[in-house]
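The freezer alarm interrupted the setup, so I double-checked each line after restarting. Inputs confirmed:
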Amino acid sequence: VDSGEDLLRAITQHQILVIEGETGSGKTTQIPQYLMEDVRLHSRRNEIGCTQPRRVAAMSVAARVAEETGVKLGNEVGYSIRFEDCTSERTVLKYMTDGMLLREFLTEPDLASYSVVIIDEAHERTLHTDILFGLIKDIARFRSDLKVLVASATLDTERFSCFFDDAPVFRIPGRRFPVDIFYTKAPEADYLEACVVSVLQIHVTQAPGDCLVFLTGQEEIEACCEMLQERCRRLGSKIAELVVLPIYANLPSDMQAKIFSPTPPGARKVVVATNIAETSLTIDGIIYVIDPGFCKQKSYNARTGMESLIVTPCSRASANQRAGRAGRVAAGKCFRLYTAWAFKHEMEETTIPEIQRTNLGNVVLLLKSLGINDLIHFDFMDPPPHETLVLALEQLYALGALNHLGELTKMGRRMAELPVDPMLSKMILASEQYKCSEEVLTIAAMLSVNNSIFYRPKDKVVHADNARMNFTVPGGDHLVLLNVYNQSGFSTQWCYENFIQFRSMRRARDVRDQLEGLMERIEVEVVSSLEDSVPIRKVTGYFYHTARLSKGGYKTVKHQQTVYVHPNSSLFEEQPRWLIYHELVFTTKEFMRQVIEIDSGWLLEVAPHYYKSKELEDSSSKKMPRKQGKTKDELG
DNA sequence: GAGCACTGC
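Predicted 3D structure, all chains:
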């Protein structure tokens, strides 16, 4: 940054400032250093906090700034991410994940220990960043000494400025190489085939430089890599060597690492990637980008409480981010496999912010515990759908976290301490009474590790499925997960032999350790039920998501939706009469994932306020009672 | 009988 003095002047004059700058403009590393050196802003020994959407970014930026300023990482400059606090009493500049700062509001609602808060990569609009916007705007009103910087890429800075009461926008010039963009003349019917043809054309006709292809998921990536390899084999020595490498988040780490090895002389590297290469990792040497213009996006239907993952055209902002990946080391080229007209008229300007596409159970609980009672009127930059808030409130009421006035209960206050979904925190708290907290902690940790524990490579499907069957125990999937956790011993060798994802296991262990560490604070004693699965089944998944067998499928007890047991479930063939599911996902059908068998009588024992014996009668021919429970207005 | 983009506390 050339204009450090100007920037400092602007910061002294305004409480909130929006900073617009491309990645590579040095805003993330330089600005906090200017602030640190400036005595006007730093007469008090308060911290400068700088949030990042990703853990690795927080760590690596902190390491770089520590090096540049010649201090030891963790002293004056440090970072704080889940499972890892690398700060000390001397820390002045702290890089952290946005979720971490959000959690800090629970212990320090006015962020008193900070003199400056920087929200970096604001344009990404992560769920946590969006909540921070509302909270920070609010505290800035009474903390006039707090400086707030909102740093974003070029897009949307006007909207940020507008949201923060017309805060001035300070622009920092970027340093990036130009990228030429090419469109197709007509739409492509088969974009996978078009990708393969484009890669080969680049390989044969273009100057040296590696190539990056954006696809939507594992299956597409595998298909594309196979097609490329097959055609290169057929062309044989007529063309130079092409090194084809897949990358996606679920790929085992040793295979991921291959994309970073240098391209052999005379050869060309092609990396076939998901969106992981759009923001999360950067590959050096990319000169060509091929963009078919699609991505998989999560969406959430609050009327049914169901999530789904759908292939959608990506936004113009996302397409531009992808193109930018070609211009990091030299001038590059981006080949878009859609027409210029489609780019202009058919693609959205920006991606829909996450807050509008996700379940908000834990966010609502967090805001309630910060004393924000009227969520409908909370200052969201883009408010979530009304139904999403209503469903979250309904769920929290059912779990006993809110009373009928929508106020936080003592139970809710304890639940908010745990960094997991409300259903999981409720079951952990309930496990105390049923003397099985030891097991329930493990189950909660395993359920909160979203991506699959079971590794199922295409060429070893039979082996993988056999390995998985060996973990089957009576009762349901929660107990299978508990069994896997207890057997694993966290050995890479064991995981490999049993087709278990080691990364997921390590994560489950970290989560479990963290949760166990919080048990004292919420006054839950850690005890084991010793082999008895009944108490575990009474509390796991908790009673909120129940379904009963009903001609060929299941019906949810509270909303009478037709749903099915997922074919990967250990209960797929058993089809028990009553069960509890952890989540609903819509793919080819409405599926319940992670289910456990229960006795309907338990529901009256565990949740008498929520179930009436009439709803639990077993004569399926009988007309179902009308929906009971609280209405929207009562919950407000 | 399915098929899981990416993050984060």
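Quick read of the result. The first helix of chain A runs from residue 4 to 13.
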